[in-house]
Each structure stands twice: as C-alpha cells, then as structure tokens.
Design brief:
Strand content: 15-25%
Structural class: alpha+beta
Number of helices: 8
Number of strands: 20
Shape: globular
Largest sheet: 7 strands, antiparallel
Oligomer: single chain
Radius of gyration: 23 Å
CATH class of the largest domain: Alpha Beta
CATH architecture of the largest domain: 3-Layer(aba) Sandwich
Length: about 400
C-alpha cells in the first residue's frame, strides 16, 4: 500500500496535470508543463504525458545552422538554387534527385495564385524535361516542392512550375495522398513556426519512362520533415508508392534512417552527429499534430475547375484513353466522370481491407496485414510481396 505522504504527492501531481489539461489549449502536438515539485513534463494532445527527461529528443540543444535542409552531396552534384527551394538535378532520369527548402509559418500565407505555366528550368545547364514529354503520357506533372508552399512570392510561385521540380505521378496519387501530405506539412509549419522539408522520387535503373527525353516514372516517392525548434525537436519520414490510396498518412511514416536506407541519400548532414543520430532513428507519431486545418480545402466548391485543360483520364469503349480535354479537377471529362467514381469506390473497397502492422522491411517499406492475416509489402515494381508465415 502507498504511504500517506506518497498519496498526497500523487494527488498534487494529478491535480496539477488535470488543471493544466483543462486550462491550457494544446495548440501543438505537445507542450511543456511543470509539476508542483518542479519536474518538467510533456503533454500530448491525445491526453497522455511523459517526464521530459525520459525523452531523448528533449535534451537536444539547437544550433543556428545555415542550409540545414541540404542533404549530403558529392563532387559531381550541382545544387541549383531558386528563391523558394533548391535541388540537385538527375540528368539520366530527367528530374530532381531531391528538392529541399525551409517553410516558415509566414510563408504559408498565400499572396499569389498558381501560374500553371510549366516551363523548362533555365538554370539547369543540361536542360530539363518539357511539355512534350508529359503530353498524352497519362501522368500528372507532380510538384516535388508544392506550388502552395510558394504562394508568398510571385517569383517563387513561378519557379515552382519549372520542369526540374516535376516528376511523373499517377493522377490518383498526385491529387490524393501526396496532396494530403503537402497540406499536412503546411499545417506543421504553422504549428511549429517552421520546418525543413526534403522530397523527391526514388530513382534507380530500369524504371519505365515517358517522352523523347525518357523521363523516368518512379515507383515510389519520399519526403522527410525536420522540426528543429524547441520544445519539440523531431523528425519524420514518408515513403509512398506512386498510386492512389485511402489509407491515413500515418500508414506511410518511417524513421528518417529508413528513408536514407531506401534512397541512399544522407539527410541533414549538417546536424551535430549525436543529434543527427537520435533524430533520424526516432519515429514518434504522438509528437506530431495530425489535424489538417486547410481553409482552401474546406472551402472548395463542388464546381471548382482547373485553370488549364488536361487530357481526360477516362477510357473509351475500345480501351483507349479519351482524347477530350477537361477542366474538371477529377481529370475526367463529362463523358467519363462515372469512371472516376468507380475508380474511387474500387480503391476505397480495396485499400480499407488492408491495415499496417506497424512494422517495416529493412529497406523502409511498410508491411501491411491483409484481410486474412497475411503480411506483405509492395516491391519496387509495385507488386505485392507476401512474407512467409513463421
């Protein structure tokens, strides 16, 4: 049994924490508080708490590091810097290996609209892909650094439409789960004042390609985010197959170390070694606020149209892609809008039957659990690879 003194101490601690939960609005995914006996605790928005000294990330002291978002480069890499983001261009694959930028709370205030003027990047000496490479390919020109992250400057917005910032993405991926992740990152920039973002395709030999310039079509995309501000220093990674999904974003989370293993890229090399090690190996989902407050998304009208027409994604009765142009955000013309509904319904039925087991392969791929309990992951070609039952 507990002693009377210990009971009183526990009551005081419980009362203090209860008061803090009631009085304080938890704006962030976590917040610091102090108990009556002077101990620092971390409060999470799901109602849980931990002593701060038990969380290694809370012992990190931040440093002022210029270009912290830049991955490690070699002597052959040429960094191309634009106003809102920087990149290293991969000429054999005709797209960037990575794009990197710092996104601040102030920069999420949208002052300028999308230009939708896709042009080759004049700063890439080896030249980039162009309109003809993507025309009729069936793939979206998917932004790596989102246009919506560049609305703070007319120049930054225009440069976000350089082809060096594009990669062939399935329409259901670009307009679905990838867009959702972009919105989530903007929300984190608002809540944590600023974040460092690196994104790109997973490039390797043997990928299919489009266009005369042979633009590789990636099977996977990645994104890593670093919050390097007190009190909640943390990092997180995502690896996503280039296909539509109705699964939550958390299903694709991995440690930054896992993304490094999967891509061969060394992220945040400018961090002190001890900090880099602990941040990149730690995956703490509770440390991040997963609510998305997107005013544009919530206020979207049903009849919203694209500013530039695109080729319909629908299939004709003979199985060929429709040649009609459409302004519908779904990517389907009026003749094939029902195909969009069927595709969405089929995707939801399929995807909701699989869940994540919370584990990952050695290369960072998410392990799923099927409706009958079988465990599998998606290979680099997008095929299911089942694990042997033990």
């Amino acid at each position: 049994m507990f002693s009377t003194a210990l009971k009183k101490k526990m009551k005081r601690l419980l009362f203090t924490l209860t008061t803090l939960f009631i009085v304080q609005t938890l704006i962030f995914g976590q917040k610091e508080a102090t108990t009556t006996d002077g101990k620092l605790v971390v409060l999470y928005d799901n109602g849980t708490w931990l002593y701060a000294d038990s969380i290694p990330l809370y012992n990190i002291k931040t440093n002022d590091i210029t270009k912290l978002e830049f991955p490690k480069t070699n002597s052959k890499d040429i960094i191309v810097s634009h106003l809102g983001y920087s990149l290293v261009y991969n000429e054999p694959h005709e797209q960037a290996t990575w794009v990197a930028y710092e996104l601040t709370k102030e920069e999420t205030n949208k002052l300028y609209e999308r230009t939708d003027k896709f042009i080759p990047d004049p700063y890439v000496k080896t030249k980039t892909a162009n309109d003809k490479d993507y025309a009729g390919s069936g793939y979206d020109r998917g932004h790596l650094a989102p246009a919506s992250d560049m609305g703070w400057s007319a120049a930054a917005m225009a440069e976000s439409f350089y082809y060096s910032n594009m990669s062939p993405q399935a329409a259901s991926f670009n307009r679905g789960i990838w867009k959702k992740l972009e919105e989530q990152v903007r929300n984190w920039a608002i809540e944590y004042e600023k974040v460092y973002v690196i994104a790109g395709p997973v490039l390797k030999s043997g990928l299919p390609f489009i266009g005369t310039n042979k633009v590789s079509v990636p099977n996977y995309f990645y994104k890593v985010i670093l919050d390097y501000s007190k009190p909640g220093i943390k990092g997180i990674g995502f690896i996503m197959p280039n296909t539509g999904s109705s699964l939550p974003l958390q299903s694709y989370t991995v440690s930054i170390d896992s993304v490094e293993n999967f891509t061969g890229i060394d992220f945040f090399p400018l961090l002190p070694d001890n900090q880099e090690e602990i941040i990149e190996k730690t995956l703490c989902l509770n440390c991040w606020d997963w609510k998305i407050n997107n005013k544009e998304n919530n206020a979207k009208n049903v009849g919203e149209k694209l500013s530039t027409s695109v080729q319909c994604n629908g299939l004709t009765q003979v199985g060929e892609r429709c040649k009609n142009k459409t302004l519908n955000t779904s990517g389907y013309c009026y003749l094939h809008e029902n195909q969009d509904e069927k595709e969405t319904n089929t995707e939801v039925k399929t995807q909701t039957r699989e869940t994540t087991s919370g584990n990952y392969t050695s290369s960072g791929q998410t392990i799923y659990t099927g409706p009958r309990g079988g465990k599998y992951h998606y290979s680099s070609s997008g095929k299911k690879v089942y694990q042997r039952r033990k």
